Amino acid sequence: MRMIKKAFTVLMAVSLLILSALPALAATDSGVTETVTTDSNTVQDRGDVRDSGGDKGKVELKTKKTAAVVEGDTAWVALSWKAKGTDATDFRIVVKTENDGVTIAYPVNTGSYSSLMDNDTLSASEIDFTSLRISVPYGSRKVKLKITATWLQNGENQKKEYKVTVPVARFRGDDIAQATKDAGSVSAADPAWLEVEWTGLAPLLNDVEITVDGPRGAVITYPADRTFTSLYYNNSLEDGETDVARFLVDATALPPGSYSLKVEVSYTKAGRANSATGEFSFEVTG
What domains sit in the chain, N to C, each tagged with a CATH number? Predict the structure, then answer.
């Protein structure tokens, strides 16, 4: 009897040792699927999802801080990823932020999420990146992103959350610049449309209105009988964008020669009114 009890004790100890060496399985409700959502987008159902964290395989986010985005601007930022252990397939991310006024968009080919540059597979030890298009309002200084990544690895659907910081640089410098100096020519016999070009330097200028002060004797008329003219495409200018504004000049009272126009551009930036001035030349022909 004593020998049987001793053998039973040894058997129980061995059984416990074997059980303790097995990997822990995440408890899931049978038939339950998990859907990852953002404020405006939903990623399709991925089946039963477990948080990634084991040594057998996982995905590492290499980017903790992205390149800076200028306040008021929209820019693409890249996040680098690396698979460890085994390949990670069907890799995708969705993003949320609690920063007011910040908007996030994904590449057009994925729509409601972002995936990798080459394809949706992150091979073991490979580094690839995902792209996000971020718009930050004026006055922002730092944007915090909450990244939810999902993928398939070791035959299981994986999910993990990451945090990323997007630095925001303050815009400094002129908001707008005169792009040309010559407005064109007009005949002394007939009125003609002249045009001036402006280039945006700040990330975004809205409500652009332009008024022109010509030489004595010149009659200036704006489109649609307004008290100002605006830009050809719309009334906004983005960083690096050049647009043209037109106005009608009646120079029948002027002798042929060279003349100048003083132009004022008014606009809003971050809701605040601003203005800039420029000077353009034009010719009156006989």
Answer: 33-169 (2.60.40.10), 176-285 (2.60.40.10)
